Amino acid sequence: MTTRRSLLAAPALLLAGPAAAQDRPLRIVVPFPPGGSSDILARILQPELQRVLNQVVVIDNRGGAAGNLGADNVAKSPPDGTSILLTDTGILTAGPSLFARLPYDPATDLAPITMLTFAPYIMAVHPSVPAQTGAELAALVQADPGRLNFAHSGVGALNHLTMLVVMQHWGGTVTEVFYRGGMIGIQAAVTNESQLIVNGATAVLPFVKDGRLRAIAVTGPNRLPDLPGVPTFRELGWPAWDAGIGQGTLAPTRTPDAAIQRLYNAFRQVLAEPPMVARMTSLGASIRTEGPEAFRRQLAAETDVWGAIVRARGISLD
Question: Which Pfam families does the UniProt record give (predicted)?
Answer without folding.
Answer: TctC
